[in-house]
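Duplicate of #3305? Posting structure anyway:
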C-alpha cells in the first residue's frame, strides 16, 4: 500500500474504529449510556462488577488504547482528529483509574451505579409507570451485584475515603426509603407495588449494611493509602489534562493565584466589607430568585448565547449527594425533553437554628454558585455540548474545561457587573476563587508533599478563610478527588486564551463571540481546542 493510499483509507479506518468503540464502551459502562440519554438500550443494565469481568475489561481497554494510538491523526479532518485525541484521553484516564489508582479495590463509591436510581425519577423521558418498571429492573439487577463490593475491596482502605463512603451509602439508603418509595407508592397495580416495595427495601438494607460495615470495621483501621505519590500525580496531570509541566511549576502557578486573590480579599475585609447570609428557611427561595436574576443578566448583557429556552429547576440536594453544597443534575446530550436541577444543600434540620443559619452560603457566595452551576455555568455549557459537531464530542466531559468554565464565569460575571458593584459580591467571588486555589495547593500537598488532613484544613482556614467544618470537607475531598485542581487550572487556561483572542481581534473582540466559539466543540480539555477557537474567531464568516 502506498503512503497516499494509506492516507486516504485512514479516515475510514478510524471512523469504523470510533463507531465500534463507542458501542463497546457504552455496553461496558451502561450507566454512561443512561446518563447520555440512551434509555431504551441501557436502562436497567449494569456493569459487571465481578473481579474476573473487571480484569477482562482492563485487558480489553489496553488493546483498545493501542489500536487508537496506531491511527495517523495527520490524515484526519479537524473534528476526527479531535475525536481521536478525546478517545485516547478517555481510554488512558479510565486505565489510570482502574489500574494505577485501583478504584475497584480501593474506592467503595466505585459501585455507586448499583444504588444510583435518581435519574429514573428526575428525567421525564418516558411516562412514570414505564420508568418505574425500569427502575425496578435496575434494582433487581443491582441486588445480584452487591456482593462484589465487599469481595473486591481490599483492606485497609483510606480512612478519609471510607468515612465519606459511610455517609454516601447511608444517604442511598435514606433516598431509597424516602423519595423513591414515596414517589412510586401509587404507581402500578398491587402486584407491582408489592414487588417494588420489597426489592427497594432489600436494596436499602444492602446500602445500610455497607455503610455500617465501613463505619464499624473499615474506618477504625483506615490508613493514608489515598496518597498518590509523585509519579502517579504526574501521570494524573498527563491523563486528565495533557500537562507535563514540572510539579514545582504547577505549584508556583497555584500559589501565585492564591496569593493574588488572598491579597484582594483581605483588602476588602480591611475596609469592613461583610458577607451576610440568608436565613436557612429562605435559602431555596433565595437561590430561585438569584437564578432568574443571573439568566436575565446573561441575556441582557449578551455574554453568551443560551441555545434553548429550557430552564434549570432549583431543588434541595438528594440525601446521597449532601457532601456537596451545590450541584447540577442535567439530562444527557441525547435525551429529550431537556431537564436540569440546580441542587442546593440545606442544613440538617436537627441542628440548632443558629447552626443552620451559619451553614448556608452567604448571599455573595450563593450568587457566584448560581453563576457557576447554572447561568452561564454548567447548565449553559451543557446546552452547548448538545450541539457539538460529533457524537463523541457530545459524549465526553473534561474536568478542567467543565469546572474551569464554571469557575471562570464567576469572575467574568462579576467583571461585567453582576451584583450591581456591591463590594460584598467581589468579596464573595474572591472567597470562591480562594477555595479553588486552596484545592489546587492542598491536592498537590496531600498527594506529593506529605500534607496531613489537619494541615490541609489549616490552609483552607488561614489562606482561604473557610470555617473549620467546610475546611475539613474541602480537604477530605482532595483525598478522593485529587483532580480538583482543575477548577483553577481551567479558569487560568480560559483567561489566557481570552487574552490571546483579544490581542488578535482588537476592536472586533466580543465576549459573546469568544464564549460561543469556546463552547462550540463540547467540553474537551482547553489545550485540545485552543487553536480551533482562535481559528474560528479569526476566520471570516461565509
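Output from current build:
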Amino acid at each position: 500500500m502506498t503512503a497516499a493510499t494509506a492516507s486516504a483509507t485512514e479516515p475510514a479506518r478510524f471512523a469504523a474504529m470510533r463507531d465500534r468503540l463507542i458501542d463497546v464502551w457504552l455496553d461496558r459502562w451502561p450507566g454512561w449510556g443512561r446518563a447520555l440519554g440512551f434509555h431504551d438500550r441501557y436502562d436497567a443494565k449494569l456493569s459487571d462488577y465481578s473481579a474476573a469481568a473487571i480484569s477482562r475489561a482492563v485487558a480489553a481497554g489496553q488493546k483498545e488504547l493501542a489500536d487508537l494510538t496506531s491511527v495517523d491523526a495527520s490524515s484526519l479532518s479537524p473534528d476526527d482528529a479531535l475525536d481521536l485525541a478525546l478517545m485516547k484521553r478517555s481510554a488512558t484516564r479510565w486505565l489510570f483509574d482502574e489500574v494505577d489508582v485501583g478504584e475497584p479495590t480501593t474506592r467503595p463509591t466505585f459501585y455507586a451505579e448499583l444504588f444510583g436510581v435518581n435519574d429514573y425519577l428526575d428525567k421525564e423521558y418516558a411516562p412514570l409507570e414505564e420508568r418505574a418498571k425500569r427502575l425496578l429492573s435496575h434494582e433487581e439487577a443491582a441486588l445480584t451485584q452487591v456482593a462484589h463490593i465487599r469481595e473486591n475491596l481490599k483492606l485497609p482502605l483510606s480512612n478519609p475515603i471510607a468515612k465519606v463512603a459511610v455517609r454516601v451509602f447511608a444517604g442511598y439508603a435514606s433516598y431509597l426509603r424516602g423519595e423513591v418509595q414515596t414517589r412510586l407508592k401509587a404507581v402500578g397495580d398491587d402486584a407491582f407495588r408489592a414487588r417494588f416495595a420489597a426489592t427497594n427495601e432489600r436494596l436499602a438494607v444492602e446500602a445500610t449494611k455497607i455503610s455500617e460495615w465501613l463505619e464499624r470495621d473499615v474506618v477504625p483501621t483506615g490508613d493514608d493509602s489515598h496518597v498518590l505519590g509523585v509519579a502517579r500525580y504526574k501521570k494524573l496531570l498527563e491523563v486528565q489534562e495533557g500537562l507535563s509541566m514540572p510539579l514545582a511549576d504547577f505549584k508556583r502557578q497555584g500559589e501565585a493565584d492564591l496569593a493574588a486573590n488572598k491579597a484582594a480579599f483581605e483588602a476588602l475585609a480591611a475596609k469592613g466589607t461583610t458577607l451576610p447570609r440568608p436565613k436557612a428557611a429562605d435559602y431555596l427561595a433565595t437561590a430561585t430568585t438569584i437564578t432568574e436574576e443571573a439568566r436575565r443578566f446573561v441575556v441582557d448583557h449578551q455574554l453568551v448565547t443560551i441555545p434553548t429556552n429550557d430552564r434549570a429547576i432549583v431543588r434541595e440536594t438528594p440525601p446521597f449527594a449532601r457532601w456537596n453544597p451545590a450541584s447540577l443534575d442535567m439530562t444527557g446530550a441525547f435525551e429529550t425533553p431537556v431537564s436540569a436541577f440546580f441542587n442546593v444543600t440545606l442544613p440538617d434540620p436537627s441542628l440548632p437554628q443558629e447552626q443552620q443559619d451559619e451553614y448556608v452560603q452567604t448571599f455573595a457566595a450563593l450568587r457566584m454558585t448560581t453563576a457557576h452551576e447554572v447561568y452561564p455555568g454548567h447548565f449553559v455549557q451543557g446546552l452547548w455540548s448538545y450541539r457539538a459537531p460529533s457524537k463523541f464530542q457530545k459524549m465526553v466531559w473534561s474536568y478542567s474545561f467543565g469546572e474551569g468554565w464554571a469557575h471562570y464565569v464567576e469572575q467574568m460575571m462579576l467583571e461585567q457587573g453582576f451584583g450591581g458593584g456591591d463590594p460584598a459580591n467581589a468579596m464573595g467571588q474572591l472567597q470562591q476563587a480562594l477555595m479553588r486555589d486552596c484545592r489546587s495547593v492542598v491536592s498537590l500537598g496531600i498527594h506529593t508533599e506529605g500534607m496531613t488532613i489537619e494541615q490541609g484544613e489549616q490552609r483552607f482556614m488561614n489562606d482561604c478563610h473557610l470555617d473549620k467544618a467546610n475546611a475539613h470537607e474541602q480537604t477530605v475531598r482532595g483525598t478522593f478527588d485529587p483532580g480538583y485542581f482543575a477548577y483553577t487550572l481551567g479558569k487560568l487556561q480560559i483567561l489566557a486564551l481570552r487574552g490571546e483572542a483579544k490581542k488578535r481581534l482588537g476592536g472586533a473582540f466580543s465576549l459573546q463571540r469568544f464564549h460561543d466559539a469556546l463552547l462550540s466543540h463540547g467540553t474537551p480539555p482547553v489545550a485540545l481546542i485552543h487553536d480551533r477557537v482562535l481559528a474560528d474567531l479569526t476566520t471570516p464568516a461565509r
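Confirmed duplicate; merging threads. The two ends are 38 Å apart (CA to CA). The longest strand covers residues 326-330.
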